[in-house]
Amino acid sequence: MNEVTFTKGLESLNGSSLDTAAKTKKTQNPESFGNMLTRSLNDVNQLKLEADEAVANLAAGKQKDIHATMIALEKADVAFQLLMQIRNKIISAYETVMRMQA
Amino acid sequence: MDFFDALHISSTGLSAQRLRMNLISANLANINTTRTKGGGPYRRKDPVFAAQAHEASFREMLGNRRKELLKEVAVVGIVNDSRAPIKKYDPMHPDADGYGYVSMPNINLMEEMVNMISATRSYEASVTAIQSAKDMALKALEIGQ
What we know:
The structure holds two protein chains of two kinds.
Chain A: H1 7-15, H2 19-26, H3 33-60, H4 66-99
Helix pairs in contact in A: 1-3, 3-4
Chain B: H1 2-29, E1 45-53, H2 58-63, E2 71-80, E3 86-89, E4 101-104, H3 109-141
Antiparallel strand pairs in B: 1-2, 3-4
Helix pairs in contact in B: 1-3
């Protein structure tokens, strides 16, 4: 569970098909949505790794503060829930686009 | 991120109160201690807390001056209580002086108990602050559902 694997897929989503549209936008807006999403995914992953480490340290007796571990877990939890909300929004947008054919 | 700032500041409060609780435990445990490394009876210990600016990166400081007003708590020192030791008459005690008096730590059990309740309640308050900050963040995530 060390790496969120679907970041790779996001990069390809960002790459080819929306290329021309993205390039025209890039002049005013240097960061594309895909990049931003990838970056926030990495941030969430980082928080999760920190939480993992905090739990391991507490179990090993390196960390004496229970609350520091709990706060690391809470941070990871809230960040992940935010990520899930973004994912839900993306999926529902995708489904809306797919229903357009009918 | 502001939400994490709230968590971090509350976390310093939790650490401070935990240290205070440790000192109260030490004071209670040493209520009858007549020998210390420096000589004389045990002296009651108190923590000194100070408000210090919440650590933020320089860019954040420049971008948002309100951050300077965010203060977290830091333990800047532990001081010995200056009250004189209690003299107790006990000639059989190995630490008794020439007149048969023993110097006992000047620790008031009631006072320590009240401090302990205060430390516990302050700790609970910080935990409640953390929970409220988290509830606010989760409420914000419910927007648009």
